[in-house]
Design a protein that fits this description.
The complex is a heterodimer of chains A (164) and B (768). Chain A is α+β, with helices and mostly antiparallel strands and 164 residues long. Chain A contains three helices and ten strands; from the N terminus they run H-E-E-H-H-E-E-E-E-E-E-E-E. In chain B, helix 6 crosses helix 9. The chains are: A alpha+beta (164), B alpha+beta (768).
Chain lengths: 164, 768
């Protein structure tokens, strides 16, 4: 887990200067990728700060996007398809956007890749928000069958591999 | 011999509550160990009580604190965004010690060109960079911040020798300042004000391009005395940026000279209101002092918008005087709209005040002063009546920062005046939080430099209580929500942090410079810990009394963590060392579950398991006195007949005893339990917590039992409980109302409930 060790100093640097911490000033997202054995599908939940995802969608696509609106979904799907790449058994997979929900200041985005019969290797590239925040960090948890692995992706190290 | 056998057997019966499985032989003798019991008192962790701080958590008979009085003349240069100041500090040494030198804080130096603060963090070369960020990092001249000290002089105008060590300045005085003595000296300085929106910081200016105006929120603007006390000596730990302030109480007279068309407000009472207010403003102010139900506008939006266009070259001096404050902050701009409302505390009238540029409306005129009033009432009720004459909320973009009687708060609507719920509740919450800081740490003056949680944690806890009350008092303001959507405080909200990667978690009892996730560490976790203490461990009555006791004891004093911990126990009679140890001194988390449930019936014969034990010891049934035997459902020797009969039907020994000792009438009203359950609870998490269990019965009834945390004192991993019941149990749930921040609830129920995954739940919901 070398990625983790390197990033400790980065994390410290990100801690806010302000006295009230509702303004998050550290840039971090959390993505869970889990294989559902019964459904034979890879299920992905990404949690991002609402203002971060809004910022990237505004800059890339359209200034008027409001994350709580249904209209934002197409943009979220488009953005994720470019930045979150999941390769199973050496084949890049397309995922389906299931939907999103907002909890406090985070948006939870749900994606699914169906018809995955077995997994020998899975590799995940997570470049979410690197195009707007230098110090963005994407924590990514993989849980495939009984195997678990966590990555902390930063701008110049955004891919992780899990062999089963 | 029979007697002896009986002894062995009773020992066996007694032990059966533990476990027979412990008979496995160990090849090697285990080494001894120290007392690692989680209920051990915190003698090692706590400092020893003394004459300054008692074992009960109160100030001791020899408690002292220093005093620093300031007379400051200040000029704000709006053209160049500079502050020029001159101050005379009178420092009183109330300590029993002679002081050879004095330490002052030069907080602005954190922005000096040679500041070490940015150097302490590692960085890396990114693969690519935004041009503006790149040029900012590598091409732009660094901001020329920091205090430019012009002189330090004694009362006779003679220079005093001083040494600056980053953000600290030592003044070497000609002879030691003895116990009880005072010393006065003067300092002159200036500095460049930072742009707090783009360069960040707890004070500075925001520039409004459209109307070419600045709004200043100014603090840490003068060299301030360090705290000298019995705990730290001189608290001269450098200001690196995260650990906030440790400050001395004193009286302030501050004259602030600004362009004549600026509106100014700050810590303390305005001394020359008639000179700086127009007649209209004066009339409105007098109305506001009698308006207890709604704010009165002192400067309206139309007037503020007209004022924005003014460019006065004349100057005005606003004079403030504050008694017994630990700091001073002020705000100044042409842009301000100003409203005030009166709040009554006993015979005193306190003014709740808001200042905001038009960019804050329509949100600010509606909610700011309302939130200030509500905060003062909520906090006063739980601590002490707000003792200062006013509390101001100033709107500054992205800010959330507190000073005595004044604070800066974010919450800016979109340019078209619309705003999301996030902005609205973020704004109300930040106002409650920052106004609340008047209580912790402005009045209950803990050392923020060393202990971020002592003010942030207590304040965030109180913020939660105050937010909930705001929701109750103004249901129309939070509709369609039924309760205020608090961001922190509810136990469930801290779970994600507490179950996170242990390499990025550090105990609450740590210096704020060295923690990961300061927001969770110093705000969220202690606030939740106190909320759980209040709602679940102690109950509101005991907690509120103890919390109030602590607040009153340390009002206008300098408490340390032990003073808080000890007061909470001393005033409530609840031993909480185990709670402080777990929640504040460790990174342990709560995880309590149900490992298994066994069902027993009373039987006339010893069970097969018991017979085995008896055989091993050579005991026959005839050796035994009349006993009541228990047989587990499904075990060898269990029959359906046992399940049908009552306890007395199944055990002639029991029946005879009951008939010999109780009358028929007495027996008729006794409960007659038939089902006997042994429930095994386990605790994969390190924190000890009360064991809250809901038992549900076949007839639809249920009962909730809270076993005290001490249930874990002799076995930190598992505990068994016997439930005797007339009705069959259908389910058992641990922590049914999610009161304890249990990080894994998949082991909380029997029979085990297959929890649908979060993903599947959401997918089903989307499908409708």
């Amino acid at each position: 887990m070398r990625v983790f060790k390197l990033s400790v100093s980065v994390l410290i640097a990100l801690v806010s200067l302000s006295s009230f911490m509702n303004i998050h000033k550290y840039y971090v997202s959390v993505t869970d990728v889990e294989y559902a054995t019964e459904e034979k599908s890879l299920q992905v939940i990404s949690r991002l700060f609402v203002d971060d995802i809004e910022k990237v969608l505004h800059e890339r696509y359209n200034d008027s996007i409001k994350i709580e609106h249904k209209l934002a979904d197409a943009y979220i799907e488009k953005y994720f398809s470019k930045k979150l790449l999941i390769t199973v058994n050496n084949e890049l997979k397309q995922f389906r956007f299931i939907g999103k929900e907002i909890e406090d200041d985070m948006v939870h985005c749900y994606f699914e890749i169906e018809n995955i019969l077995s997994i020998e290797t899975i590799d995940v590239t997570n470049k979410l928000l690197f195009d707007v925040f230098d110090s963005q960090q994407n924590i990514t948890h993989l849980k495939i069958n009984d195997k678990k692995k966590s990555f902390l992706f930063i701008k110049d190290n955004a891919t992780g591999l899990l062999k089963l | 011999m029979v007697q002896y056998k009986y002894l062995i057997l009773s020992a066996l019966i007694l032990l059966s509550g533990l476990s027979f499985a412990q008979e496995t032989k160990k090849d090697e003798r285990e080494p001894g160990h120290l007392n690692t019991n989680k209920f051990k008192q915190l003698y090692q962790e706590f400092s020893t009580p003394n004459q300054y701080r008692t074992a009960s958590g109160a100030p001791g008979h020899a408690y002292y604190q220093q005093k620093a009085d300031y007379k400051i003349n200040l000029e704000l240069d709006d053209k160049q965004q500079k502050i020029f100041g001159e101050e005379t500090i009178t420092y009183t040494n109330n300590s029993p010690d002679a002081l050879e030198y004095l330490w002052l804080q030069l907080d602005q130096n954190v922005r000096a060109k040679d500041s070490k603060s940015p150097l302490r963090n590692g960085d890396r070369v990114p693969m690519y960079d935004d041009p503006s960020s790149f040029s900012g990092k590598h091409f732009d001249a660094p901001f020329d911040g920091g205090f430019k000290i012009e002189y330090v002089k004694d009362v006779n105008g003679k220079g005093l020798k001083y040494t600056i060590n980053q953000t600290m300045m030592r003044i070497d005085i000609p002879k030691p300042l003895k116990a009880g003595e005072k010393i006065s000296f003067s300092i002159k300085w200036w500095y460049n004000i930072n742009d707090h929106v783009n360069q960040r910081g707890r004070s500075g200016y925001e520039y409004f391009k459209k109307d070419d105006n600045y709004a200043y929120v100014i603090a840490q603007f003068f060299p301030r005395m360090c705290v000298y006390n019995d705990v730290e000596g001189w608290q001269n730990y450098q200001f690196w940026g995260n650990g906030e302030f440790a400050l001395v109480f004193g009286d302030y007279d501050v004259n602030i000279t600004v362009p004549a068309d600026h509106i100014v407000d700050g810590t303390g009472e305005l001394q020359n209101r008639k000179q700086v207010f127009s007649k209209t403003m004066m009339n409105r102010y007098n109305q506001a002092r009698k308006s207890f139900d709604k704010p009165v506008m002192i400067v309206t939006q139309a007037e503020a918008e007209a004022n924005e266009k003014s460019r006065s070259t004349a100057k005005k001096t606003w004079k403030f005087s504050a008694k017994n404050v630990r700091d001073f902050g002020f705000t100044s701009s042409r842009k301000y709209i100003w409203d005030m409302q009166a709040v009554k505390f006993g015979e005193r009238t306190v003014m709740a005040v808001s200042l905001y540029p038009k960019e804050g409306n329509p949100l600010w005129e509606e909610y700011s002063t309302k939130a200030v009033v509500s905060t003062l009432k909520s906090y006063s009720d739980k601590t002490f009546d707000y003792p200062y004459p006013k509390a101001i909320s100033v709107h500054a973009k992205n800010q959330g920062m507190e000073y005595p009687m004044i604070c800066w708060n974010y919450g800016r609507p979109n340019e078209d005046g619309t705003y999301s719920d996030r902005t609205k509740y973020g704004m109300i919450s930040v106002i409650i939080h920052e106004v609340g800081h008047n209580f912790f740490p402005m009045i209950v003056n803990s050392d923020e430099r060393q202990w971020g949680w002592m003010d942030e944690g207590l304040d965030t806890f109180m913020q939660y209580v105050a937010e909930q009350e705001f929701g109750e008092w103004f249901p129309e303001a939070i509709a369609p929500n039924k309760k205020y959507p608090s961001y922190r405080g509810e136990p469930a909200k801290i779970v994600r942090y507490m179950k996170g990667d242990q390499s990025f978690i550090i105990p609450i009892m740590a210096n704020p410079e060295n923690v990961y996730q300061l927001g969770n560490n110093a705000y969220g976790k202690p606030a939740t810990a106190l909320n759980i203490l209040r709602e679940t461990v102690m109950g509101r009555e005991l907690f509120d009394h103890a919390f109030k006791t602590y607040s009153k004891r340390w009002m206008f004093k300098h408490p340390s963590p032990e003073d808080f911990f000890r007061s909470m126990e001393d005033a409530s009679g609840v031993d909480l060392d185990w709670y402080w140890r777990g929640w504040f001194y460790s990174t342990d988390y709560v995880d309590i579950g149900i490992k298994g449930v066994k069902k027993f019936y009373v039987s006339s014969k010893p069970s097969a398991a018991m017979k085995k034990e008896m055989d091993a010891e050579g005991i026959k049934e005839s050796d035994l006195r009349p006993l009541v035997y228990m047989t587990e459902e499904g075990s060898e020797g269990f029959s359906k007949k046992l399940a049908k009969g009552s306890a007395m039907d199944n055990s002639p020994n029991l029946k005879e005893y009951m008939m010999d000792n109780f009358t028929a009438e007495e027996r008729a009203v006794m409960p007659t339990p038939k089902f006997f359950y042994e429930v095994e609870f386990n605790k994969p998490g390190g924190l000890v917590m009360p064991l809250i269990v809901e038992y549900k019965y076949i007839d639809g009834t249920s009962k909730k039992v809270t076993y005290p945390a001490q249930v874990w004192r002799k076995n930190d991993n598992e505990v068994r409980k016997v439930i005797a019941s007339e009705k069959e149990l259908v389910s058992i749930t641990v922590d049914p109302d999610l009161e304890t921040a249990d990080i894994d609830v998949t082991n909380n129920s029997w029979p085990k409930q297959e929890k649908e995954s979060k993903f599947k739940n959401f997918k089903d919901k989307v499908k409708g």
